[in-house]
Write a structure and sequence with these properties.
The protein has three domains: 175 residues, Cobalt-precorrin-4 Transmethylase, domain 1 (3-Layer(aba) Sandwich); 92 residues, Rossmann fold, CATH 3.40.50; 120 residues, 4-hydroxy-3-methylbut-2-enyl diphosphate reductase, catalytic domain (Cobalt-precorrin-4 Transmethylase, domain 1), CATH 3.40.1010. The radius of gyration is 23 Å and the shape is globular. Helix content is 40%, strand content 15%. It contains 14 helices and 15 strands. The relative contact order is 0.15. The protein binds iron/sulfur cluster. Iron/sulfur cluster (SF4) binds next to helix 2, helix 5 and helix 10.
């Protein structure tokens, strides 16, 4: 896979050393067990895969290039480039402005955009409607288009399904930029519908089974308002279905939804998922670490609006106490941690963070991981914060060297 030019302040020498060593020993990515680093007073498990993916590094490289190549010009991002506050704030500090927030609400009126402004399309891609508006302004939105190729792959599949008269069912978060862009492309290909979760899939299956009953059309319209393509017909458009998904959903949930809808469809169903490689790798690495056991607690680092990070949290919290933090500043000195509750969608504070680990009669272990949009530098700062809390005397370099030596080479 090609490498990208990303700013040094997003990198971590420690994490890079671990990742490079694991890659050298397991180039085909068959081993999803975590890396165990023993710091004496605490052991840290690092998941086998986490951090910047291909699409994020590609988006970062193009965005910083856009800034560098256009001094004196106004540079706009269509919306957050990726869902990580550190990266977006860094871009803003260099003068980049956002046209929309993550829900598609206008932050800078489009009428203020001039043809010679620089527009960056984020990794999630853009809807055809937005492309049409930018085209009408006369702005070049193709030069700095950072749409991830794995998102475009989903659109291509939607077009292929549409060509074969399948209705495209999109498993995704309805408000998410990527899902909105995919819905726009899928609607251009034919009939399309966004399904958020298994609850909605079951409700849809029930509507499909009773499509001719009185009131079912109305229930469908209310339930899927704004999420069904124009002129969607419940009676005709759910015979042959093809399922695609937002690239960052949970693999097992997509499978469950696909199975429910496949059973409900009267015609044929094409239900292969379109999760990207990074989502698959990170979820398998998370499960690999949890299956190995040993962790007393999990810390997941990433943006609170990051879909792939939230799903890692969802997987972890089924098995271990899990804290979803934005960065090291969330871990306070007095045992308080500020973290995000994905169910309440709220930023909360908890006291006594890690206190039970100090009462253990053995060395505690913490599993540390992050989402695909989180800089490794952020994870490294969290690691240092944890080590400081445990008053670890061992310096990180010697622990890494010992770890590498124990693997059989250095
Ligand atoms: S998470 Fe997947 S789809 Fe999203 S940017 Fe990364 S590689 Fe692309």
């Amino acid at each position: 896979m090609r490498s990208f030019d990303i700013p040094d302040h997003f990198k971590s020498p420690i994490i890079s050393k671990v990742k490079d060593k694991r890659k050298e020993l397991d180039a085909r990515k068959l081993d999803f067990s975590p890396t165990l680093l023993d710091f004496g007073a605490v052991k840290i498990q690092l998941a086998r895969h986490f951090g910047f993916c291909f699409g994020v590094e590609n988006a970062i490289e193009i965005s910083y290039k856009a800034i560098f190549e256009n001094p004196g010009k106004r540079v706009f991002l269509l919306s957050q480039m990726i869902h990580n506050p550190e990266v977006n704030e860094d871009l803003e500090s260099r003068g980049v402005k956002f046209l929309m927030d993550t829900k598609g609400r206008e932050l800078t009126p489009l009428k203020e955009v001039q043809p010679d402004d620089i527009i960056i399309i984020p990794a999630f891609g853009a809807s055809l409607e937005m492309e049409g508006k930018l085209k009408a302004i006369g702005v070049d939105f193709k030069k700095y288009n950072t749409t991830c190729p794995f998102v475009e792959r989903v659109w291509n599949r939607a077009y292929k399904l549409g060509d074969k008269d399948y209705t495209v069912i999109i498993h995704g978060k309805p408000d998410h930029e990527e899902t909105r862009a995919t819905f726009s492309h899928a609607s251009n290909a034919g009939a399309a519908l966004v399904v958020a979760d298994i609850g909605e899939a079951l409700a849809l299956a029930s509507l499909m089974a009773n499509k001719d009953a009185v009131g079912v059309e109305k229930t469908f319209s209310e339930m899927f308002k704004g999420r069904a393509s124009a002129g969607f017909n419940l009676s005709k458009d759910l015979e042959n279905i093809g399922v695609v998904n937002q690239t960052t959903m949970i693999a097992s949930e997509t499978q469950e939804i696909a199975d429910v809808l496949k059973k409900a469809a009267k015609g044929s169903a094409n239900t292969k998922d379109t999760l990207c490689y990074a989502t698959n790798d990170n979820q398998k690495a998370t499960l690999g670490a949890l299956d190995e056991g040993g962790a007393d607690l999990v810390i997941v680092v990433g943006g609170y609006n990051s879909s792939n990070t939230s799903h890692i949290v969802e997987i972890c919290e089924k098995k271990k106490p899990t804290f979803f933090i934005r960065n090291e500043l969330e871990i306070k000195e007095d045992g308080v941690i500020d973290h995000f509750d994905i169910h309440a969608q709220a930023h909360i504070s908890s006291e006594g963070f890690m206190s039970e680990l100090f009462d253990l009669e053995r060395v505690p272990t913490i599993l540390l991981t992050s989402g695909a949009s989180c800089p490794d530098a952020s994870v490294e700062r969290v690691l240092h914060k944890i080590l400081a809390r445990f008053d670890c005397g061992n310096d990180v370099d010697s622990v890494l060297n010992n770890w590498a030596l124990n693997l059989g080479s250095d």
